Amino acid sequence: MATRNELVEAIAARYARSDRAEKARILDEFVAVTNFHRKHAMRLLRGGASAGRSGPRPSRRIYDDAVREALLVMWEASDRICGKRLKPLVPVLLDAMERHGHLTLEAKVRAGLLAMSAATIDRALRAAREKTGQRGRRRGSASSAVRRSIPVCTFSDWEDPPPGFIEADLVAHSGPVASGSFIQPLVLTDIATGWTECAPLLVREQTVLVEVLSEVRKLLPFGLLGFDTDNDTVFMNETVRDYRQVAGIEFTRCRPYRKNDQAWVEQKNGAIVRRIVGYRRYEGLEAAAELARLYATVRLFINFFQPSLKLASKQREGARVRKQYHPPATPAQRLLTDPRTSEDVRLRIKAWQATLDPVHLLSEMCSAQQRLVEIADRTLPSEYEASPAPTLEEFLSGLRTAWQGGEVRPTAQPKAAAKRTRRRPDPFATASERLRDWFEAEPWRTGRELLDRLQAEHPGVYPDGQLRTLQRRLKI
């Protein structure tokens, strides 16, 4: 803008002295250089550059504090999802919370919530987000005969399958050590709708997998038509192959060492299993039972109250990939709008959704997560034991202020940050006490002055290249 103002000052006088034809030529050149609108350029050249830079425009406050407070409650009840995902969820979540008596809003506040755009939602939640601070695989040798009999299906081979074609994978709850026996949940993700089911396997064994898969099929709102897995031996065996042949299920697999062939389920492994359960080690019957209770709640909350983006298409232009996505929607919403869904399934989904309370589900998830932590950390000292789980009333009353406590989300369990240790010897190890005494006596001294003093006392020991290290030490 400063350069444009200088250009206005340079040609405004000549523009005022010129005739009509010359003014047109000057104006054409000025518009081409500045990209200003022609009318705006004419006004600038007639009046000259502005005296000073104008300040920011005053913001128009359309939504009052009541709407913003209600939005904060909705954001907490949705487990702090982004504005783009929260916008389509607001009508569903608002009806559910009002139906169960968790929220009572005036007509004006309700209309404001429904009218908010995704960008406005993100701006209204910016302060709360800043307060919260939101940001080796085991491979076995598969049976070659069974693997050769199963066709390969890559990511590009999924065109537009009907609901019922799923990808399956196992997630290891082994903690930092992969030895021994530990629980591995079976994760199933539907390609068309994103419907996700999780069920824990007490041991990694093919007959247990078949039994768990049979129970999960009873929970699916649609029939299981296709079953796509990786090349793990727990899937590539006669037991699983014979089971799908008897059940009439199409069985496919991905290419070895190509995780992107199973991008749908791999994404859910991180977005659901790891973010909700975390990276601790779980083993034994008690942990498996508690995981089953947690996943029974998670499946309802994720499939009915967590919108997600689904890739519509992508095009590669040189080194750049352009992606287009469908509008955010929950798996239940995609299942209802899919024309291939039967009317019976639609009626069951609608009746099912009418009975669900998202706040109650979120509270149950928090309680189950705390019980899992207690099971995993029983070897820790008593001072690290988890606090008792809050009641539903306590959980609901804290939705308006939960963001003030930082990032505490049931669907985003934090991963412990790796501690960075010193990799080189401390060059000021022997002079630390001396430096501290100098600093306490004269705290206004700079790092350069202290380094000069050290160099005078110990010639050749502390080179100039260690100035930055000393300045960081002084800052601490």
Keywords:
Nucleotidyltransferase, domain 5, 10% strand
Helix and strand topology:
Layout: H1 2-17, H2 20-34, H3 38-47, H4 65-77, H5 83-99, H6 107-115, H7 118-124, H8 126-132, H9 144-149, E1 165-170, E2 184-190, E3 196-201, H10 206-219, E4 226-229, H11 238-247, E5 250-253, H12 263-277, H13 285-305, E6 308-317, E7 320-329, H14 331-337, H15 343-354, H16 358-376, H17 392-397, H18 432-441, H19 447-457, H20 467-475
Parallel strand pairs: 1-4, 4-5
Antiparallel strand pairs: 1-2, 2-3, 6-7
Helix pairs in contact: 1-2, 1-3, 2-3, 4-6, 5-7, 13-16, 19-20
Summarize the structure.
By secondary structure, this protein is of the alpha/beta class. The protein contains 20 helices and 7 strands.
Question: What would you say this structure looks like, in words?
Answer:
It is a single chain. The protein is about 50% helix and about 10% strand. The chain has about 475 residues and is of the alpha/beta class. It folds into four domains: about 1-45; about 65-130, no CATH class; about 145-315 and about 325-355, Nucleotidyltransferase, domain 5, CATH 3.30.420; about 430-475, no CATH class. The strands form two sheets. It has a five-stranded mixed β-sheet with strand order 3-2-1-4-5, sandwiched between helices. The chain has a two-stranded antiparallel ribbon with strand order 6-7. Strand 6 (about 310-315) and strand 7 form a beta hairpin.
